[in-house]
Automatic annotation (TrEMBL):
Lineage: Bacteria, Bacillati, Bacillota, Bacilli, Bacillales
Full protein name: Uncharacterized protein
Amino acid sequence: MKANNVVKDIIYVHQNADQQFVVSYGIHFNEFVMNAHHPLQNLLLIKHQYEHGGFNIHTHMEYVEQGDMKKLMNDHVQTYGDFCWIDFEEEVGVDELNGQEIAELLYMGHIKQPLNLPFYSKLNNRFAYLTHDDGWFNKVFYRDFEDFYHLLGETITSKMKTSKAGKGLFGMKKEKDFPAIGKEVIRSLRDKLKEGVVISLEKAILARGKIEIPFWVMGDYFDMDEMGEDYKQIRKAPANGLLSFDRKTKSWSALLK
């Protein structure tokens, strides 16, 4: 259950390469949509409280078409509790799902764990998005981790514009001109991401013409209360690495310590 001691301006990510999912804290559905590498397709809603979707009679599930995505984004999904969906290309593919596949989707939404890798040729889906208290504990399956590397780089950069009480980091107006952190920079950290990392915007510093965002290797968490408490201790220690923005060359790099 979400606690009151929410740690703001951090992102926790743990990449499970074998099972093709990422557990995260601090990345919300709206950020997922806005920062996706490719525009999200239609969404088949497995668990939700959205009341304005279409109804697929074959699966008895509601769905959101790509053109209506903004309505869902404005519906405060973080208040739903469970919010689980899988993307799909065409509704005809949803109509072709058999009973076993529909049962697998329902099981996945209930347990937050699929019976098999949740990628269906009939849907041509790239993701399976499973969360309780969106942004607090998210578990997202990726067909291609390149989508995740892109998303994380874009999300960190977008948060830089809104962190520190809405003023952006250091109150600088030029932040909106920051280029996104390229996925190749994020990809270079994949060994650390597989261990579980907290990226701390709250501890970002401006030094010698650079902005440095520290990160700490934290380990594997499913309890985000515990993760937050452990982060409050570890942030007092030297960081394990930095995401560094050179304000002169306008380029990002990753530095491991």
